Amino acid sequence: MTAQPLPLTASSAALSPRVDARMGGLTAQRSTRRLTLSPKYGQGAREVDVRYLWCGAADAPTVIVQGGISASRDVTACDAAAGWWQALVDAGAAIDLDRYRVLSIDWLAPVELGVEAISSEDQADALAALLEALGIHRAHAFVGASYGAMVALAFAARHPRALDRLVVLAGAHRPHPLASAQRSVQRGIVRLGVASGQADEALGLARQLAVTTYRGREEFARRFAGAPEFRDGRFRLPVEDYLEHQGRRFVERFDAERFLALSESIDLHDVTPERIPTPATLVGFASDLLVPLADLCELQRRLHGPTTLEVLESPYGHDGFLKETHQLAPLLRAALA
């Protein structure tokens, strides 16, 4: 059964000192709000501190932008280092900070809500409550990629009056069972590592396995088709150094419990497309191993509002939303126009 929208309330004051910076006409607000949510897998209302970035032209329409489970609120530089989607979210870029004000949050984890599991609906409700707290009656758009696409769909289903348009990249109304199976193995590796006192090693290994599902076969064939090299007492395949590097980088900025919770949240995701009246643009990648085009075609057929589906060719698979900035830029401009 799909959970019904629950009342949302928000405190009027920021928890942490609010940082308002002006950069050539742009305004960046980096802060924390204490909001009250009723989580799907909890009993009753809970208070939670939501960390957010709200950046762009002052008084411009707000565009929500959310990425994958490892993405932070720093989608664009504003008051921080280069954002994870800087090429597409910047002054003069496809999501133009001279025309829009971008809002993004750090994903919530179960421990912050005092629950055992967190849902895409909980993340959507947090964003809806944050809009209310910031005095934003209606967002111009929700641009979501990967897990962010799932949360965008949950938001549109639960809070349709708070959203004008929807842009969904590499995400669908439910996870594909094969992708869930792959994530289940990753979580099993991490749980085994936690139980044996090797959490970081297990998390790095799980990330290595995940990377093999994010990228396409074509890219792996092009980059790692060389011969094995005998090193450190064994043969090492060309792909191993790359995977180990990806694992180490992930462990430096993520922890096992957060990974387990957000990975599980992907597989708990289930939205009824017929409940979404919002005009939508769907973007898929032909080489995506996690979100097959058949799922996006089904989503397009079932959405209640007008919908277009754009299919991009890319060697980068699911990570096409991060890598194919030149192909995505005109699509995003048109979707937001």
Walkthrough of the structure:
The protein is α/β, with parallel strands linked by helices and 337 residues long. Helices cover 38% and strands 23% of the residues. The chain has helices at 110-113, 120-133, 147-158, 177-195, 199-214, 217-223, 238-253, 256-268, 293-302, 320-323, 325-336, and strands at 9-14, 19-23, 26-37, 46-57, 62-66, 89-90, 95-96, 101-105, 141-145, 166-169, 229-231, 234-236, 280-285, 307-312. It is globular, with a radius of gyration of 20 Å. The chain starts with 8 loop residues before the first strand and ends with a helix.
The rounded Rg comes to 20 Å
Percent helix, as a range, is: 25-40%
Assign an overall shape: globular
Q: What distance lies between the first and last C-alpha atoms, to the nearest angstrom?
A: 35 Å
Which oligomeric form is depicted? Answer: single chain
Please identify the structural class as seen in this structure. Answer: alpha/beta
Characterize the main sheet. Answer: 10 strands, mixed
| Count of distinct strands | 14
Tell me the fraction of residues in β-strands, as a range. 15-25%
Uncertain regions spanning at least 5 consecutive residues: 1-13
Order of helices and strands: EEEEEEEEHHEHEHHHEEHHEHEHH
